[in-house]
User: Which sequence fits this backbone?
């Protein structure tokens, strides 16, 4: 009886192991289809940090307020509305003499800000202004397209067609045929890295300099990208038949 019980337990364990397999229980082909498109950007997002230090907390905070107010005036002068400016809460940190001596020597106040430019006409002007501010740090600009949703749909379709072509070639090389689609997955988003899936605002190609007309101005050294490369990928599992 004990032996029979052990055998039954082993069968149950094997059955559970088989049932837990993540692979389909039929012949299949798994392929990834891709599509890419170069498009001229027409939007930008600029992120940066205003940061001031002072002996007193109120002085450091007031300095951030003042620079933020000046920034708002400048952005308004180039047509950026308040709705396109996102300012996070001001953060305050104490500054200490050193790691061992925790006597407070001053305070640091900082505020992260994101500015969205719905057109690139004043992108160089805004970046030039920020770079010349002594207490503005971590300046980062990324580009986007106002046609993102339309382009995303187009690229998804093209990626699906590419997956089908890849599957047909792979199946034909093995003497089998594609049957039906079992599963489709995709990942999307305007990420910071040009990964295998989704759109990326970082894959940019810089063409001829498109800066200010007066080349003597340091702002003319800033350039706009000729295009950004958008890409879409889909994973497809096809059933196959002999």
Assistant:
């Amino acid at each position: 009886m004990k032996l029979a019980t052990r055998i039954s337990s082993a069968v149950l364990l094997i059955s559970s192991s088989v049932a837990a397999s993540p692979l389909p229980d039929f012949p299949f082909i798994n392929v990834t289809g891709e599509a890419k498109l170069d498009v001229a950007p027409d939007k930008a997002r600029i992120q940066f940090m205003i940061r001031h230090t002072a002996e007193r907390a109120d002085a450091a905070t007031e300095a951030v307020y003042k620079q933020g107010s000046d920034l708002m005036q400048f952005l308004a002068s180039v047509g950026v509305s308040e709705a396109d400016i996102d300012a996070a809460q001001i953060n305050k940190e104490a500054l200490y003499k050193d790691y061992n001596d925790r006597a407070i020597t001053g305070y640091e106040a900082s505020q992260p800000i994101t500015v969205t430019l719905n057109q690139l006409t004043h992108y160089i002007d805004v970046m030039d202004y920020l770079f010349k501010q002594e207490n503005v740090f971590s300046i980062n600009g990324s580009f986007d397209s106002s046609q993102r949703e339309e382009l995303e749909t187009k690229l998804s379709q093209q990626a699906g067609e590419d997956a089908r072509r890849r599957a047909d070639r792979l199946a034909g090389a093995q003497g089998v045929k594609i049957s039906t689609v079992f599963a489709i997955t995709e990942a999307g988003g305007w990420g910071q890295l040009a990964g295998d899936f989704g759109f990326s605002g970082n894959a940019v190609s810089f063409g001829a300099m498109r800066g200010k007309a007066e080349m003597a101005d340091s702002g003319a050294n800033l350039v706009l990208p000729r295009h950004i490369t958008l890409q879409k990928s889909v994973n497809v599992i096809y059933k196959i038949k002999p």
Notes: Confidence is low (pLDDT under 50) at residues 1-18, 188-220. The first helix runs from residue 2 to 19. The CA atoms of residues 15 and 29 lie 25 Å apart.
